[in-house]
Amino acid sequence: MAKEKDIDNKSIIKAYPTKELFISILVRDITMKDAIGDLLDNSVDGALKLRSKKDYTGLNVNIKIDPQKDIFKIIDNCGGIPIAVARDYAFRFGRLENMKPTGHSVGVFGIGMKRALFRLGNKFSVESTAKNSYFKMEVDVDKWKISGEGKSAPDSWQFKFSDGWTENTKTDYPIDKRGTIITIKELHDDVKDAFDSDTEIASLIKELQHEHLYSIDKGLSVTVNGVKLVAPQLKLLASNDFKTATWENTDGPVKIKLYAGISEEEKYGPNGGWYIFCNNRLVIGPDQTKITGWGASKPVKIPEYHSQFYRFRGYAFL
After folding, report:
1. How far apart (Å, rounded) are the C-alpha atoms in residues 35 and 63?
2. Tens of pLDDT along 222-242?
3. How far is CA 121 from CA 36, 111, 115, in A?
4. What does DSSP assign to residue 86?
5. 203: helix, coil or strand?
6. What is the distance between the alpha carbons of residues 22 and 35, in angstroms, rounded to a whole number?
7. Cis peptide upstream of residue 303 (ω within 30 degrees of 0)
8. In a 3-state reduction of DSSP, which class is residue 173?
9. d(CA 275, CA 316)
């Protein structure tokens, strides 16, 4: 990209994108529910950093959607975003090659939070308290699109902390005060129209508790407009007559663990099949198709899924 002193150089051909074009491409293929799911992913990643042993008891994420008041808010107590991470990494559009990855993070490419913010509304703020830092940033997207005109491309793509930010404090912030508040205002019309429906809110709840079945099972409390998300426990029965089948392969970049067995007694339902988790987020399941082997003929013959298998549970963790 051109340096600031090169802007008027007649030999420079400007090829960097406009913000309007970039934002339109960024949000084109993401649904409203996926955008909210991306924000929840960030909270789950915070919980993972805070609790490496994956016991999330006491951690919570509260999602509030009020189209009548034109506001969306997600509040968590999952450790917060350190200001150094916010300044250099978290709000970049993409992940730098030298950025240290979060082990087993849900997010990979570094665009989830940003595209979600732009997808949902015209104004957003992010306020976060971490161990020894605090910041708040507020962005008016329409003003940001035209900001920095006449400056070099890198300078015109910056955000700015609001007054009052702190870092490297001598005294750590209390654990119960560490977390992040994301507020989005001036919601886009399609967002307001969609979430003005109880049916759409119910659909969002169903989708989020499905995708984050693992984290909820490990104690993370998630609410949407006061409704607490619930998920079936990841348990398999064992006795002297039968045991859980297990297999794992930890060689190579992708670690795999498989568990297969029988669930606790329940009324007949649609929960039988395989559940496939990638970095602890459910990506497929309960699956009852050839994707997970049902009806295969080679190398061994496996029957098609049938209602008699409704208590079968298979869990694949990648």
Report:
1. 13
2. 999 999 999 877 888 888 888
3. 12, 16, 11
4. I
5. helix
6. 17
7. no
8. coil
9. 6
Residues in the chain: 318
The token pair at 302 is 């496996």
Number of helices followed by number of strands (H, E) in the chain: 9, 13
The b-or-e profile of 192-213 (16+ CB within 10 A means b, else e) is bebbeeeebbeebbeebbebbb
Question: Cα angle vertex 231, ends 245, 120, to 5°?
Answer: 125
Nearby residues of 5 by Cβ (< 8 Å), 6 or more positions away: none
**Residue 141, both tokens:** 């997207």
DSSP 99-167: SPPPTT-S--SS-HHHHHHHHHEEEEEEEEE-SSEEEEEEEEHHHHHHTTTTS-HHHHT---BPTT-EE
Phi and psi dihedrals of 295, rounded to 5? Answer: 85, 5
| Degrees, nearest 5: CA angle 6-12-14 | 100
What digits encode the pLDDT tens for the residues 131-186? 999 999 999 999 998 876 655 556 678 889 999 999 999 999 999 899 999 999 99
To the nearest 5 percent, what fractions of the chain are helix, strand and coil? Answer: 30, 25, 45
**Is residue 1 over pLDDT 70?**
no
CA distances from 139 to 62, 119, 144, 154, 156 (A): 22, 14, 7, 17, 14
Burial class (CB in 10 A: 0-12, 13-18, 19+), 24: exposed
Q: How distant, in Å, are the alpha carbons of 14, 96, 105 from that of 111?
A: 24, 11, 13
Q: Which two tokens stand for residue 77?
A: 């107590």
Residue that wins the pLDDT comparison between 176 and 266: 176
d(CA 166, CA 83): 8
What's the rounded Cα separation, in Å, for the pair 121 and 135? 21
Encoded amino acid at 75, one letter: I
Note the pLDDT of residue 264: 79
Q: How far apart are CA 149 and CA 16, in angstroms?
A: 13
